[in-house]
Each structure stands twice: as C-alpha cells, then as structure tokens.
Design goal:
The structure is a single chain. With about 70 residues, the chain is mainly α. It has one domain. About 65% of the residues lie in helices and about 0% in strands. The protein is elongated and about 50 Å long.
C-alpha cells in the first residue's frame, strides 16, 4: 500500500483553512469583524487554499508529463 503524501498534505491544508474561519473565543477580532481561531482569517484562509490548489495542480502536471 503506497501512501500518497500529496493527498494528505492537501487534506491537512484544507482542514486548516476551514479551522481558521470557525468562530471561537479569541483575544482580538479578525479582519471580518468576528472572533475566530485566526485573527488574519481572510488572508490565512486564502493562502492555505491557494497552497493546496498549487500542490494539487502541480502534482497533476508532473504525473501527466511523467
């Protein structure tokens, strides 16, 4: 059984992106105006999702060209 680390990494990045927008008690408001896990919510969520997409499309391109 081969472990696909790319899929695990993509899943972890997407789970992290979702966890940044969850409303949780925090010391400061985020940029959207509510208290959440991460105070940089719109930016951190976008960065995590874009990183996951880059890994996904890069791995598809590498597999296609191999």
């Amino acid at each position: 059984m081969k472990i696909d680390f790319k899929k695990i990494l993509i899943a972890l990045l997407l789970i992290s992106a979702v966890s940044t927008v969850l409303p949780l008690p925090a010391s400061k408001e985020n940029l959207l105006g509510y208290y959440s896990h991460c105070t940089f919510t719109p930016w951190s969520t976008a960065i995590l999702i874009l990183t996951a997409l880059c890994i996904f499309f890069y791995s598809k391109k590498v597999i296609k060209n191999a």
